[in-house]
Each structure stands twice: as C-alpha cells, then as structure tokens.
Amino acid sequence: MRSLLLTTLFLIVAGAASAKQFQEHNALMDHGGGHLMDMGGGMVMGQNVDRIPDGCDGIAATKEITVHAGHKYAKKFPGRIYAFDVQEYQFEPCTKLTVHFINEDNVRHQWMMHGLPKYLYPKGMFHLEVTGPGKISGTLILPPGEKTYLVHCDLAQHMEKGMKGQLKTGNGSGDLPSIPGVTPFVVQDDYSTIGPPAGIEKAEAAQMAKVAAAPREEPLISGVLVIGLAVGLLLTPFLMRKFKGMSAGEIVAYLLDLTKQLIGYVVRFLSWLYTQVSSLISKQGSA
Ligand SMILES: [Cu+2]
C-alpha cells in the first residue's frame, strides 16, 4: 500500500516536471536602457515607451499586435520548419507599437526587429525573447519615414527555416527576400533528382529542373593549372640551355631518358619503403 502511494506521488511529480507550463513573463527586472529580463528566459531589448524619435511631431497612433511563434505556423510553407503566424505588418510612421509575443514551442524564439536608429535603440534593435511556451510584451515607437524593417528569430537557422517577416512604416522601402508566402526564396532547394515534392506546381517544377540542369560554372583557373604553370616557368630556362643545339630527335630521346630515370627513382624509393615497412613488421612480430 505504501509503495503504491509512493509510486503515484512520483508519477505526479514527474509529469508536472516534464510538461513545461505556459509562462507569463510579466515580472521582468528593468536593467535600464530599455533592457528587461527575468530568470525564466524572458527578455526585452530596446524598449521605448515615451521618447519621441527625431523627425516625429508626436505619437501618430497607438497600436497593439499579438505575434505567435511556433513550428505549427510553418506547416503551410513547404520546406520551412519555424514561422510566425503573420509575415507582414504595416504601420503609420511614428506609431507607438506594443508587441505581445507568444512562443508556442518548447524551444527559444525571438521577435527581433532590425534597422532602427541607434541613438534611440541600442544596436539598432527592438527585441523580444521567450524560452519555451510563454508570453512577453514590449513597446517601441517607430521612426519617421517609409521603411521596410526585418523582423526575425535570430537563433541559428530559425530565420533560414522560416521565422522571418517584414514590418513596413508607410508603404515601406521595398520587400525583403525569402519571406514565407510573401517573397520568393533567394536560394531555391533543388529536389529535381527525386521529383517535385507534393504541392509544387508544374510550372514551378519545370523552372526548378531548368535551374538544376544549367551547367555549373567551373573556375577558369584551377589550382593545378597554376602549379603547372609555375613549374613550367621555373624549368623553362634550364631546358632551353639543355636543348640548345640539339635536333628534334635528340630532344625526344633526352626527354624519354629523363622519364626513364624518374621512373627508376620512383621504383627504387618504393622498394626501399617496402623493405623498411616489412622489417618493421617482422621486428614487431618477433618482439
Ligand atoms: Cu526561433
């Protein structure tokens, strides 16, 4: 009876420990300079709730968004593993923006915005981070002017695997590449040898095959060629002196003789190596 009770208790404790609870990161320590952190892997960098950026007459609008991050949002993008639930955001310049960032995975994710003015945002960044399932919130004031900002997760390969978006102030300054569902890949994966994956349109598959079939560019000057040219250049004066006054037949005979000598050296070296190795083996055998 006592052992049954103990086992049940153990199972309850183990279950609670293995399932990481969703964590609200709302008791952050303010380290100054817009940098806030807690012990649970929650972090805000570049927080700015009241300083108006140069060139803004005031706060143009006050907005709030909730960004979800997780592998489940990448399912609709073939070849991607991680994604945000939304890939594009647009706001009026000088908007005061509060971002609620929700991580739905059991790994670390970030919502990091780049290209902000450094006098206002250290390292030009606004950054939210949560390790494991949880929520964190931060606020910034967007700069004036029409610009496209990169937002991504900076953990190794998370952006390349899909956790990437763009935020435009006004009409922005163009589109960024490789944003899932928005802009084409910079480097398209090539599946042509195993056929196009399900869901790839015929025209796209044909384009991929064309890219795969295109001749790969070989470098015009290879390392071997360079070595060959250098050896040739070094030998030329020597051979010129040697061949002076010789007929074509004599030159050929001389070159043949040289080759024979070289082969002789190589054969002698190999047989010497063979005796060395075999004597070593026999010594080890007798020891
Ligand atoms: Cu991530």
Task: Give a quick precis of the structure.
The chain is of the alpha+beta class. The protein is 31% helix and 23% strand.
Q: How would you describe the overall organization of this protein?
A:
With 287 residues, the chain is α+β, with helices and mostly antiparallel strands. The protein folds into 3 domains: 21-185, Immunoglobulin-like; 186-216; 236-276. The chain has helices at 2-18, 202-213, 223-243, 248-286, and strands at 23-24, 29-30, 36-37, 43-45, 61-70, 83-84, 88-91, 95-103, 108-113, 126-131, 134-141, 147-152, 164-169. The strands form 2 sheets. It has an 8-stranded mixed beta sheet, with no helix packed on it. Strands 1-11-8-5-6 form a 5-stranded mixed beta sheet, with no helix packed on it. It starts with a helix and ends with a helix. The relative contact order is 0.11. The mean pLDDT is 86. Copper (II) ion is lined by residues 82, 109-110, 153, 155, 158, 163.
Keywords:
287 residues; alpha+beta; Immunoglobulin-like; eight-stranded mixed beta sheet; five-stranded mixed beta sheet; 4 helices; 13 strands; binds copper (II) ion
Number of helices: 4
Q: Give the strand tally.
A: 13
The fraction of residues in strands falls at 15-25%
Q: State the major sheet.
A: 8 strands, mixed
Q: Over all CA atoms, what is the radius of gyration?
A: 34 Å
CATH A-level architecture of the largest domain: Sandwich
**What shape does the CA trace take?**
elongated
**What class, by secondary structure content?**
alpha+beta
Bound molecules: copper (II) ion
Distance between the termini: 67 Å
